[in-house]
Amino acid sequence: MNDIACMILVAFGVLFELIGCIGLVRMPDVYNRLQAATKCVTIGTCFILAGVWVQVGLLSASGLKAGICMVFILLTSPAAAHAIARAAHRSGIPLGEGAVLDRYKEDREGAERHGND
């Protein structure tokens, strides 16, 4: 039973990773690519680690390491993507052609008008 659950979790993880890789190629700008990659790769990696966790046992040393890695990835991946997107925006990388709204630019302009940066 554990083998089947492990294979299903790892298969879902690999599928999410594949979708993230396709998103990196298909999306028009760095901001959309970050969104696609971060969400899919985070979820995909967590599914793969969950499969490892199920396979080796929840309370084994490897299982606990897989669980700790899942928590670490869930906490750091969104923060890293935010930092990369903020740095890209501050360095002047433009949004894609279809972008309608730049809320971060509006917030920065408002803060500069009020003397807060």
Short descriptors:
single chain, 117 residues, mainly alpha, 79% helix, elongated
What can you tell me about this protein's structure?
The chain has helices spanning 2-26, 30-56, 61-90, 103-113. The longest helix is centred in the middle third of the chain and has 30 residues, at 61-90. The protein has 117 residues and is mostly helical. The mean pLDDT is 85. The chain has one domain. It is elongated.
Strand and helix layout:
Layout: H1 2-26, H2 30-56, H3 61-90, H4 103-113
In short:
By secondary structure, this protein is an all-alpha fold. It is built from four helices and no strands. α1 (2-26) runs antiparallel to α2 and α2 runs antiparallel to α3 (61-90).
Q: Mind telling me the C-alpha Rg? A: 19 Å
Total strands: the figure is: 0
Q: Largest beta sheet, briefly?
A: none
Strand and helix order: HHHH
Shape: elongated
Helical content band? over 70%
Class per helix and strand makeup: mainly alpha
Taken as a percent bin, the fraction of beta residues is under 5%
